[in-house]
Amino acid sequence: GAGVSQSPRYKVAKRGQDVALRCDPISGHVSLFWYQQALGQGPEFLTYFQNEAQLDKSGLPSDRFFAERPEGSVSTLKIQRTQQEDSAVYLCASSFDGSSGYTFGSGTRLTVV
Amino acid sequence: AQSVTQPDIHITVSEGASLELRCNYSYGATPYLFWYVQSPGQGLQLLLKYFSGDTLVQGIKGFEAEFKRSQSSFNLRKPSVHWSDAAEYFCAVGDTGGYNKLIFGAGTRLAVHP
Fold this sequence. Notes:
The structure holds two protein chains of two kinds.
Chain A: E1 5-7, E2 10-13, E3 19-24, E4 31-37, E5 44-50, E6 53-56, E7 65-68, E8 75-79, E9 88-95, E10 103-104, E11 108-112
Parallel strand pairs in A: 2-11
Antiparallel strand pairs in A: 1-3, 3-8, 4-5, 4-9, 5-6, 7-8, 9-10, 9-11
Chain B: E1 3-5, E2 10-14, E3 19-21, E4 24-26, E5 32-38, E6 44-50, E7 56-58, E8 64-68, E9 73-78, E10 87-94, E11 102-104, E12 108-113
Parallel strand pairs in B: 2-12
Antiparallel strand pairs in B: 1-4, 3-9, 5-6, 5-10, 7-8, 8-9, 10-11, 10-12
């Protein structure tokens, strides 16, 4: 597609529920990032994929967070047993080669109640 | 550790006035530097980037930024602000030694008065 598509745009989860957030990067983009943006803050790095390989997951805040990109295109960020502190906007970004800047999606706003 | 500081949380300017948003970074080598803009409910749009070469970088929407190594700064400027420029602006530094993971500042929210 023309841009990075994220779904759903909004998600309300009860505390303890599992959620899955989807990212469709621009076709052919090798690099894919997930960022977490808390209210009033800048985005913070969560994890990085090069094709299907997850090369860096150092930003994932706990073992409740899991990301995958099995075929090197669509990626899913899964959060198990959601907590209130997980409430944030989750941004996905993709790039063809990582050196030319990234295209960001519009994000998924997760609210845990 | 790499870090980005945006000293101004909020800035208000009048339409037509000039604008400068400050950004200071901490990085061991010459960094990759970016400015992004975020409108409410939207993702981040790249305004401009600096990788090397000319330290004055031109971007979209009439924005420019100047890399000053001696001051570890990468300030964003616009000579005449439009009401549509009201948004949140983020400065970011990229890891030149790897895959360009971005470290963002906390952002500056720009309000424009008519």
